[in-house]
Design a protein that fits this description.
Number of domains: 4
Shape: globular
Number of strands: 24
Largest sheet: 6 strands, mixed
CATH superfamily of the largest domain: Nucleic acid-binding proteins
Length: 496
């Protein structure tokens, strides 16, 4: 797999496209005024404790109070009390979980970290279990656990754990070796340990100096996270179109991620960098409801706040020898396309894929196997079940930030996000009923209807007999006024 990373930078927005084998697989957008909060550490203030929900609302200086569940306190132990350790030096779970109302109180100052951005109407999700990500390691300053990523082969884990234990020493805190640290040298690991401990020392110092609701530590920006998180063995190049940002990112990379920095290039082409792979067109398609497949089939993607449904249709595809083969080939292509769309749109939460019904068991198994194979390339954790009783494939994809659609779009002011509006005829009949209702309560000289041009046109043409009949029935003249600025469902009835 050949991978290229293209970065388009402007003062107000940074856009990153991950291109694999010539096709855009991921899009990341960070706006200067809307930077994500995951990883940030705050000194929060408890504003409300909810014993019934075993949670608390914490003011960290945002528009909405953030949410802290009892499970995200210090390992379930009372704040300020050292947990008992087991034989492996790990915190021993309390025999009986301590209720949150016995651990925190209103007005208390707590050091917390954002683990999930505010999404929709929900506030940010917090944890008191701080973790700081470095290039090779994750630092757990309040823990003593030494761990290794489960993506590293089992045969290497114990050896790596012993090396990391020796390097970490007894200075406090725990570490987890990240996947990209598997082949790291001892000096590289030691450098990362020193950087993370220095960062934690700055956070602790700030927590003693600053008042509640203060930001103590801000996670890396998108440009820096590209080097830390997106660069892999298959990455051929990282092209950035800003000289100033290239120099800054190169300096950051040389200090913390020299291997990734070696692939960084300053793009000087005359064409905008995103034009190289028609990425702006891909973004437009990623915001659409319909996704065309090469075979002639298509997907319909419907996204709500809690659930995303993806429906597979054969469309105009009739290329296979039999109907069963047509469905099978469409579903195989759809399995690849759905996995790509999940990454491209950054869809999370519960996802239901409705593949076309297949009669043969081997076809069903092959489609599910291909779907899981494609999802294995996803950096975000996914869990896929089998086929449900209704033939649907249910899955979850971890959601830590807004989807692409939520970030780039907003609900239509005309339809309020429904995706459809009342027909002009329906609006006409609403107006006629409203005039009849008001004629029974008021006695004006005349009624005037102010509505969109399409509604007025219908009243003057096909619905004119009904309008004349109503005017005769109530004994009042009814005049019409077209207003082009009005939406189709909008109208006013003026009493003159």
């Amino acid at each position: 797999m050949q991978q290229e990373i293209l970065i388009n930078w402007s003062p107000q927005e940074t856009r990153v496209a991950v291109v694999e084998n010539g096709a855009v697989q991921e899009l990341h957008v960070e706006r200067t005024l809307e930077r994500g909060l995951v990883g940030n550490v705050y000194l929060g203030k408890v504003v409300r404790v909810l014993p019934g929900m075993q949670s608390a609302f914490i003011d960290i200086g945002l528009e909405r109070a953030a949410f802290l569940h009892v499970a995200d306190l210090m390992g379930g132990h009372a704040v300020g009390r050292s947990p008992e350790l087991d034989a492996n030096g790990l915190p021993r779970p309390p025999a009986t979980p301590i209720p949150i109302e016995k651990q925190v109180f209103e007005g208390q100052a707590l050091m917390v970290q954002v683990i999930k951005d505010p999404i929709g109407s929900k506030g940010a999700r917090l944890s008191m279990q701080i973790s700081l990500a470095g290039r090779l390691l994750v630092f757990l300053p309040q823990d003593k656990h030494i761990g290794v990523s489960q993506k590293i082969p089992l045969t290497l884990r114990e050896q790596l754990r012993e090396r990391l234990q020796a390097l970490a020493g007894s200075a406090g805190g725990g570490f987890i070796l990240r996947t990209n640290g598997e082949d790291a040298t001892d000096p590289e690991l030691a450098e990362d340990i020193a950087y993370l401990r220095k960062t934690w020392a700055r956070i602790r110092e700030a927590s003693m100096r600053l008042p509640p609701q203060s930001l103590l530590h801000q996670d890396l920006n998108l440009l820096q996270r590209v080097l830390r998180d997106l660069v892999g063995e298959g990455t051929q190049s990282i092209r950035l179109d800003s000289r100033e940002q290239f120099d800054a990112l190169m300096a950051f990379g040389r200090e913390f991620m020299p291997a990734a920095a070696g692939r960084l290039q300053h793009y000087k082409g005359e064409r905008p960098i995103f034009d190289l792979f028609s990425i702006d067109e891909e973004i437009a398609r990623a915001l659409g409801r319909r996704v065309e497949l090469k075979s002639g089939g298509y997907l319909i993607v419907d996204q709500t706040e809690a659930l995303t449904t993806i429906d597979v249709n054969t469309g105009g595809y009739v290329g296979a020898r039999s109907f069963d083969d047509t469905i099978f080939k469409t579903n195989l292509e759809a399995a690849q396309a759905i996995a790509r769309q999940l990454r491209l749109r950054n869809l999370g939460g519960i996802i239901v894929a409705d593949f076309i019904d297949m009669v043969r068991e081997d076809h069903r198994d092959a489609v599910l196997s291909e779907f899981r194979k494609q999802l294995a390339r996803d950096r975000v954790k996914t869990v896929v079940g089998g086929y449900s009783q209704l033939g649907l494939v249910e899955m979850t994809r971890k959601r830590t930030r807004e989807s692409l659609a939520h970030m780039l779009t907003e609900a239509c002011p005309t339809c309020q996000g429904l995706g459809h509006v009342k027909t002009a005829r329906s609006v006409v009949y609403d107006i006629l009923r409203e005039i009849l209702r008001e004629a029974r309560q008021f006695n004006p000289r005349e009624f005037r209807i102010v509505a969109s041009p399409r509604v007025i046109e219908l009243l003057l043409d096909e619905e004119s007999p009904h309008l004349a009949g109503l005017s005769e029935f109530i004994g009042k003249p009814i005049s019409l006024q077209s207003e082009s600025a009005m939406g189709q469902e909008q109208y006013d009835i003026v009493l003159l």
